[in-house]
Task: inverse folding
């Protein structure tokens, strides 16, 4: 059976595309799936450092496109999983070094061998974005609950529609339950109402992301951090399982956790 | 001035609606900006459309220009042009013919 090619995109930069790609890919690999991660952000590659694989790069995606090496030679095997691979972006080239045609061919070749191919899209709506979506059969849109990110997500939804990539799924990233409670941050329902697409997961703001990324380790493998749990839930949903959204009540406040531990107060 | 809460007074001075949470402001602003983003109709274009609508409809009907509302409205991912046009009176066919 042919693998699924999913592009992870957002429009706005800095909302967590690369972190999402690394964690979903690693999470899928942890479940035994064969996964290829493809960094489409040519000139500003980062998926390699987030995965902790930056020292192993020999060839990159442009080398594959130009025929300097075979696809297999450019794939870097992950440290943690045998069946998880990274195809890195070129760092010293620009977005035009690869064509949508070439991207499509690379995706189709990877499809034969892998269960999932996750493409980390660059920010923006120009050539790099067009390349990133060229070979994909579905899309995940990452946004944060801020006006700029939601506006750009809406634009991307329109462009995906125009490119006939139907039914994109939304990840609401960096949600802060404490701010939502005070009415100072848009909630899940607010963002869904505005964008009118279906949700595949919500990831709370979590400082563990920074700590794990500092070390080049995906937080999805950490059993104790809220973001890791959120990513594992999304992975299971990608696999077709029905997983309820995690509750953010209590996890945000030490006091309520304490109350729950000593048995006073409700849930 | 009894009964005026200090916080309300302060927020009046600083021009903030005490009931309006910042996320509601965000939603409202997004709603407006997205309607224009999605249709690529600018507020200026909408104003021109409004003026031409008035000119066109006024040939046949006497309308209350002050009460006229022309807006873009969104429902899910579709956008609609919604116009509310209060009519003062119908023009008689004779008048229409003359103005033509």
Result:
């Amino acid at each position: 059976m042919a693998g699924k090619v999913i592009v992870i995109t957002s429009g706005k930069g800095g909302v967590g595309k690369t972190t999402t790609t690394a964690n979903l890919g690693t999470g899928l690999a942890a479940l035994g799936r064969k996964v290829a991660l493809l960094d489409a952000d040519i000139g500003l590659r980062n998926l390699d450092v987030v995965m902790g694989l930056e020292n192993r790069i020999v060839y990159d995606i442009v080398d594959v496109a130009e025929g300097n090496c075979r696809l297999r030679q450019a794939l870097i095997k992950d440290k943690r999983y045998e069946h998880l691979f990274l195809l890195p972006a070129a760092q010293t080239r620009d977005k035009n070094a690869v064509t949508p045609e070439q991207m499509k061919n690379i995706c189709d070749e990877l499809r034969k061998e892998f269960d999932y191919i996750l493409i980390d899209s660059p920010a923006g709506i120009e050539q790099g974005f067009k390349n990133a979506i060229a070979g994909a059969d579905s899309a995940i849109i990452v946004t944060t609950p801020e006006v700029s990110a939601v506006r750009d997500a809406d634009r991307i939804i329109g462009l995906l529609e125009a490119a006939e990539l139907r039914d994109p799924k939304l990840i609401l990233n960096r949600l802060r339950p404490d701010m939502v409670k005070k009415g100072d941050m848009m909630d899940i329902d607010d963002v869904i109402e505005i964008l009118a697409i279906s949700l595949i997961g919500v990831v709370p703001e979590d400082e563990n992301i920074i700590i794990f990324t500092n070390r080049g380790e995906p937080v999805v493998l950490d059993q104790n951090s809220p973001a890791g749990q959120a990513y594992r839930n999304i992975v299971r949903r990608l696999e077709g399982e029905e997983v309820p959204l995690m509750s953010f009540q209590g996890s945000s406040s030490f006091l309520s956790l304490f109350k729950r531990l000593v048995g006073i107060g409700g849930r | 001035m009894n009964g005026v809460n200090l916080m309300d007074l302060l927020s009046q001075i600083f021009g903030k609606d005490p009931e309006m949470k910042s996320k509601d402001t965000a939603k409202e602003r997004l709603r407006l900006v997205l309607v224009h983003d999605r249709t690529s109709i600018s507020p200026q274009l909408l104003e021109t459309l409004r003026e031409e609508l008035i000119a066109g409809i006024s040939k046949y009907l006497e309308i209350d220009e002050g009460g006229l509302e022309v807006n873009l409205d969104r429902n899910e991912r579709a956008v609609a042009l919604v116009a509310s046009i209060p009519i003062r009176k119908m023009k008689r066919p004779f008048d229409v013919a003359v103005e033509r």
